[in-house]
Each structure stands twice: as C-alpha cells, then as structure tokens.
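Example (one chain per record):
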Amino acid sequence: MKLDAGSTFKRLQNRYRLVVMNDDTYEEVVTFKLSRLSVYIGLSTIFMLLVGLTVALIVFTPLKYYIPGYNDLSQVRENRQLKYRIDSLNKEVTFNAQYIEGLRKVLSGDVSTPLDTSRIEIPRDEFIND
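Predicted structure:
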C-alpha cells in the first residue's frame, strides 16, 4: 500500500469529534472538534513551551549552579591558578626531599659513588696570552 502526499495531508485534515460525557447521566460536558493536524500542532506547541520554560528557568535563575560541570569564569580561573600552585609545590617538595636525602648520605658518610679524583689535563695553549 503506497501513500501519496495528497492523501496523507487529507488524512491529517479529517475532522474528529472528542466528547467528554458525565458517566452517570450521559450528559455531554465538553465537545471538541479536532483533526490529527491540530492535535499534532497543539502537542508540539505545548512541548516547545515546556522546553522553553525549562531552559529559561535554568538560565535565568541560580539553578544553573547545581548542574554538574557548570562553573563561573572566576571559579575556572581560580581552579587553574590553584592547579599551577599545587604543581609547583609538588616539584619543590620533590627537590627538597632529594636535597635532604643527599645531605643525609653525605653526613652519614654513605657515599656510594666514588669521587672523581683524576687529574684534569688542560693544554698549555689555553694559558698563553697573546
């Protein structure tokens, strides 16, 4: 069964009646004349309004701060500066630990590497002044 665009649009425009009745008295309370197109447009409009109101509520109120990953620009700068400071402090602590370990070895006499006591031969040409 193949549907062409004309028959599909015609089906969307077919009119239907929605009647709300009182169950006890069978009295009609409300009557609506609807088509599939009007229901689709109405539901789409309600959906777009709800999305718009939700976005506006989040953007224009402090609720945005409860969203994970959302930060102020000042908080981002402060976090970056703190990260740099922590990195430099970690390097300084590492260098201090190496220095203290070397100092401890020297003071205790535990020098595992032999000292280089070989004589340096410097050519005499470097000492001659022209």
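Caption: The chain has a mean pLDDT of 86.
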